[in-house]
């Protein structure tokens, strides 16, 4: 990291000795713009000062009067756009819970440190820090209305990106997941978390899904004609499954594109499955009878996963990224991953691990015997035109990096 002296750091801990020790560690690493505070109230006064917010906050969770969790809530209210490091003497599971809360608030979390803080651990975390992008703000996300989205659908502004899925055993590319983007005329590429909710709330999700479906099937046909046989996955909203004609529409679209149903995976997000399953269960069962593959997405993040596996004939279970990345070094995550993998094995369901980000994740999945995986370690979502070139690069990586035996 360069220009450490210019990085403004807020250090918040109620123990004077700890403030002095961590302050000295930061000084030894070259950070000179460090402001220590022994209470949350005093730190908030500093945050509201005209001098502006620090780029980085090192926050103790265990403090009297205002603990670290409450302080995070105040950061959210102030649209804090910097980064955070959590520090605590609590056990690892408590730190994990606090970390998840910070991430849920969309605050950038560099990581967490156990007390007593070691120079090596602090150095490793701070090495990850990067200056925020110009104009970055938690409040800066554009808000899109139903009329704007309706026009975007009609004007063909939606475009599909594709993220590869590979077999863990041999690295073979077996398919792709279709991920919609909005190519906004002024805002550039807009991600689905900014407009899918609008589509569902305003009755536009059927139109949106049909555009995604038809474009994905046309692309699958092009790939097939070029000699590239890939199973194509398409995300389905529970609102789509409220329409009784949905199964027939999907079947007709597949037939028109000349794609066999067995090569199409319909991914249903588990946290969106409805309490009243009568119509969705009819639609999903009919799709399964027509030989479309069904996938339960983000498994383990909702409240009725086991009941859904009991009631719906899924072919594929996608283990959520929150249980995959880092599971090799986290006993809790590893136990959850292993139990989900074992459950799927007992039910005869194929398993896809989402969100692998590094070589350690990849090797963990190989040892575990997982079927398929996807994530940034393999590839980010890409335009269709980039896929063939990426496959050549990936096959070379398999050999050069010895990713498979």
CATH class of the largest domain: Alpha Beta
- The number of helical segments is 14
Cα-atom Rg, whole angstroms? 24 Å
Strand numbers in spatial order across the main sheet: 6-7-9-10-11-12-13-14
Largest sheet: 8 strands, mixed, barrel
CATH superfamily of the largest domain: EAL domain
Number of domain modules: 2
CATH fold type of the largest domain: TIM Barrel
What is the strand content? Answer: 15-25%
Low-confidence segments, given as residue ranges, are 135-140
Walk me through the structure.
The chain is of the alpha/beta class and 405 residues long. The chain folds into 2 domains: 4-126, Rossmann fold (3-Layer(aba) Sandwich), CATH 3.40.50; 146-400, EAL domain (TIM Barrel). It contains 14 helices and 15 strands. It has helices at residues 16-28, 40-47, 68-77, 92-104, 119-126, 146-154, 196-201, 205-225, 246-257, 278-289, 305-311, 331-347, 359-368, 387-400, and strands at 9-12, 34-37, 56-60, 83-88, 108-114, 158-167, 173-184, 188-190, 231-236, 264-269, 293-299, 316-319, 350-354, 372-374, 382-383. The strands form 2 sheets. The protein has an 8-stranded mixed β-barrel. A 5-stranded parallel β-sheet has the order 2-1-3-4-5, with helices on both faces. Strand 7 and strand 8 (188-190) form a beta hairpin. Helix 9 (246-257) packs parallel to helix 10 (278-289). The two termini are 37 Å apart. Residues 135-140 have low confidence and may be disordered.
């Amino acid at each position: 990291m360069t220009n450490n002296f210019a990085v403004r750091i807020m250090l918040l801990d109620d123990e004077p000795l700890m403030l002095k020790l961590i302050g000295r560690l930061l000084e030894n690493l070259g950070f000179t713009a460090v402001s220590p505070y022994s209470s949350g109230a005093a730190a908030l006064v500093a945050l509201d000062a005209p001098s502006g917010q620090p780029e980085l906050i090192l926050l103790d969770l265990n403090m009297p009067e205002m603990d670290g969790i409450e302080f995070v809530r105040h950061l959210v209210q102030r649209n804090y756009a910097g980064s955070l490091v959590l520090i605590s003497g609590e056990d690892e599971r408590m730190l994990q819970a606090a970390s998840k809360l910070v991430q849920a608030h969309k605050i950038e979390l560099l990581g967490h440190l156990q007390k007593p803080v070691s120079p090596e651990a602090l150095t490793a975390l701070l090495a990850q820090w990067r200056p925020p992008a110009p104009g970055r703000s938690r409040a800066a996300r554009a808000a899109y209305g139903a009329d704007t989205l309706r026009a975007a659908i009609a004007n063909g502004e939606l475009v599909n990106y594709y993220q590869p899925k590979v077999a863990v055993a041999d690295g073979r590319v077996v398919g792709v997941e279709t991920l919609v983007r909005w190519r906004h005329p002024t805002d550039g590429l807009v991600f689905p978390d900014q407009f899918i909710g609008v589509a569902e709330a305003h009755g536009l999700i059927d139109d949106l899904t049909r555009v995604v479906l038809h474009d994905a099937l046309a692309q699958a046909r092009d790939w097939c004609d070029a000699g590239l046989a890939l199973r194509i996955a398409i995300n389905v909203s529970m609102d789509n499954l409220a329409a009784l004609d949905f199964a027939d529409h999907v079947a007709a679209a597949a037939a028109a594109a000349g794609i066999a149903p067995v090569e199409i995976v319909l991914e249903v997000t588990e946290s969106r499955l409805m309490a009243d399953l009568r119509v969705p269960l009819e639609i999903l069962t009919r799709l399964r009878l027509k030989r479309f593959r069904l996938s339960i997405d983000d498994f383990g993040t909702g409240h009725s996963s086991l009941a859904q596996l009991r009631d719906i004939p899924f072919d594929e279970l996608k283990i959520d990224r929150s249980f995959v990345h880092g599971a090799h070094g986290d006993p809790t995550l590893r136990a959850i991953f292993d139990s989900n993998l074992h459950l799927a094995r007992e039910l005869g369901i194929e398993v896809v691990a989402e969100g692998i980000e590094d070589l350690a994740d990849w090797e963990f999945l190989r040892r575990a015997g997982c079927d398929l995986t996807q994530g940034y370690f393999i590839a980010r979502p890409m335009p269709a035109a980039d896929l063939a070139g990426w496959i050549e690069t990936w096959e070379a990586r398999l050999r050069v990096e010895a990713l498979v035996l």
